[in-house]
Write a structure and sequence with these properties.
By secondary structure, the protein is an alpha/beta fold. The chain has helices at 30-34, 54-59, 78-91, 121-131, 141-144, 164-167, 171-186, 198-210, 240-273, 276-286, 290-304, 309-324; strands spanning 50-51, 67-72, 96-101, 135-137, 190-194, 216-220, 331-339, 353-363, 366-376. The protein is 36% helix and 14% strand. It has a 6-stranded parallel beta sheet, with helices on both faces. The chain has a 3-stranded antiparallel beta sheet with strand order 7-8-9, covered by helices on one side.
């Protein structure tokens, strides 16, 4: 799991960045900056209990409503708070929200320094309570793994070997094993995870479905800072110049979304005007109306060819990323992938439906990931293109009620 954007695990870089301070203050609240509503009402007193054992968690009174869990690795920020608020809204005042804080050793690979991962439990409890948590469950390692590292683990299958799994072999096996353990220990009705770690959300959703876990997996949209950078515990490692370079990740994703929107608009116009637009283009050019002629030609081109959405989105994002290689410091791209949410394989240019455009790169010693969702459609006569993608513009809030369809955000969850 990764701790970025309110998700449960770290994104340790291959070469860890500067040592974080022992007890950094929580990051400034994006909710205050963006005018978000305060945390929804929760039952109980003003302070959530902090428990360290499953027995202590079971001993707490369980309200009549549903229990929701938000799994984290600690070092909480506004992205995690967004997850807690979403859980609080979903279960209401009669429900219970449990936040887990556990630095999982199974998902740290070679070169990923477990001992350097920031541990800020006191600040984490304060943030969790303010966002609406009822209980913070912070077990020690021997509570989660009483016999040492487990001999039997859950494997992520083919999806776990792609993208993040290829860069960090075995990572998702460690993620799924600890998520399964924490689901057993907390016994929730719902579990909330950030969409920023899209592949993690996908493998957890698949595990819950394939292994018949009696829990609904809920994805919550990515939270971004005002400049567009996705919230992550690792952002604290970035120097000022590195942060400027890191903004290229979201800029590339937004470029793909905007270029796709423009192409879909042309296809919608083409669907309503048809091929005569080419004749109109020639006629306008003949009388010197070059700008109008160019517009008509673009419409005619859209009408004549097959859908170009996926290739257009990839090209727009890649152009931004290639330019970033010349920045100081440069952005070193790991991958850019446009994938099917159900299995994280690359989609063809003829694809229709929801897809995820995912990117990972190193800036200095810090590894960052990001993604947006895009929807590819073929405009037909009498239809109009819709706005593509679900990533908010920089400075907007993603703290909205998450999707709760029976299939969840990335496939069946029950």
């Amino acid at each position: 799991m990764t701790s970025s954007s309110a998700s449960p695990s770290p994104e340790p870089s291959a070469s860890p960045g500067p040592e974080p301070s022992p007890s950094p203050s929580p990051e400034p609240s994006a909710a205050r900056n963006q005018g978000q509503d305060p945390a929804p009402d929760r039952p109980g007193d003003a302070a959530a209990p902090l428990v360290h054992t499953a027995a202590a968690l079971r001993a707490l009174p369980r309200p009549s409503g549903a229990r929701a869990v938000v799994m984290t690795m600690g070092a909480l920020h506004e992205g995690h708070a967004t997850l807690v608020r979403a859980a609080r809204r979903r279960v209401g005042p009669q429900g219970q929200v449990v936040v887990t804080v556990f630095v999982n050793p199974l998902q740290f690979g070679a070169g990923e320094d477990l001992d350097r991962y920031p541990r800020t439990l006191d600040e984490d409890v304060v943030l969790a309570v303010a966002a609406g948590a009822d209980v913070v469950f912070a077990p020690p390692v021997d509570e989660v793994y009483p016999g040492g590292e487990p001999q039997i683990r859950i494997t992520a299958g083919p999806m776990g070997t792609l993208l993040e799994g290829a860069s960090r072999p075995g990572h998702f096996d460690g993620v799924l094993t600890v998520v399964a353990k924490l689901l057993h220990l907390t016994a929730p009705d719902l579990a909330f995870f950030g969409q920023k770690d899209a592949q993690q959300l996908a493998v957890i959703t698949r595990m819950a479905a394939d292994l018949n876990f009696p829990v609904e997996i809920v994805g919550v949209p990515t939270v971004r800072e005002e400049d567009g950078l996705a919230l992550s515990s690792r952002n604290r490692y970035l120097s000022t110049p590195e942060r400027r370079t890191a903004l290229v990740l979201s800029a590339a994703l937004f470029a793909a979304r905007d270029r796709l929107t423009a192409e879909e608009a042309l296809r919608a116009r083409a669907a309503s005007t048809g091929h005569p637009a080419q004749d109109r283009s020639a006629a306008l050019a003949a009388i010197g109306e070059d700008r109008a002629a160019a517009d008509a030609h673009a419409v005619a081109y859209a009408a004549a060819g097959p859908p170009h959405g996926p290739s257009v989105a990839r090209a727009a994002a890649r152009a931004v990323l290639e330019d970033a290689g010349r920045l100081d410091p440069p952005l070193v791209l790991d991958y850019l992938a446009l994938v099917d949410p159900s299995d994280f394989t690359e989609i063809p240019d003829s694809y229709e439906g929801e897809a995820i455009l995912a990117v990972a790169a190193n800036v200095g010693t810090t590894r960052l990931i990001d993604n947006i969702r895009l929807t590819f459609t073929v405009a037909r006569p009498g239809t109009s293109a819709t706005r593509q993608g679900s990533a908010p513009h920089p400075g907007t809030s993603a703290d909205a009620p998450p999707p709760t369809t029976p299939q969840g955000p990335l496939g069946a969850t029950r």
